[in-house]
Amino acid sequence: MDGNGRWAKARGLPRMMGHRAGVEALKTTLRLCSDWGIGALTAYAFSTENWSRPGDEVNFLMTLFERVLQRELEALESEQVRIRFLGDLEVLPAGLQELIADATERTAGNTGIHFNVCTNYGGRRELVLAAQKLAQRAVRGELDPTLIDENIFAAELFTAGEEDPDLLIRTSGERRISNFLLWQLAYAEIHVTDVFWPDFDEVTFTQALVDYQSRCRRFGGLEPIAVNHLGS
Known about the structure:
The chain is an alpha/beta fold. The protein has one domain (4-213): Undecaprenyl pyrophosphate synthetase (3-Layer(aba) Sandwich), CATH 3.40.1180. It contains seven helices and five strands. It has helices at residues 4-10, 15-35, 55-78, 94-107, 123-139, 150-154, 202-213, and strands spanning 40-47, 82-86, 114-121, 167-170, 189-192. Strands 1-3-2 form a three-stranded parallel β-sheet, sandwiched between helices. The longest helix is centred in the N-terminal third of the chain and has 24 residues, at 55-78. It is globular and about 60 Å long.
């Protein structure tokens, strides 16, 4: 969700106001996904590299996460959204960890859209942790290393149980993966828009979906393959 700070700067506002506006854009996008039958939405909320930002901005983001969760959880429950937080959550503030655990538990049985929030997430870190878990199982004699395949490896990732995304949307003109879902995005289509995230709305989202629908997805083969789900 790129461009919050640049959106604010262009309007002569503090960066924090951009993050607040970004929350509203995320709420809109989640609702559109749910209404349009999209099965999963995965948002990159806070990366392992974001800790290098100024301390006041990091503290603001952590507080913002807490306030949004407290304010929106009831609505998520009523709309049958299942929310999960993907990443190394143990280093987050204790209060935020408690809210995350509560939200995850309370929505676990919901039957609507899967809403994944990548928080203190890094794709390389995720792969290293998965490799460590498999190595530990092998050392304990619980797993024959020669039997490790893509399915067994994927089951150790934060996204275990989720479909791989079909579409990656990059806002504010960014054209790189940025350490996001390195394993899961292997065959995802990529849509880039110059729109800053706070301005991402129904029109720009529709443009992304139309762009996706125009792609011919062969997954390495010669004939297009139909896909019946869509995540982003």
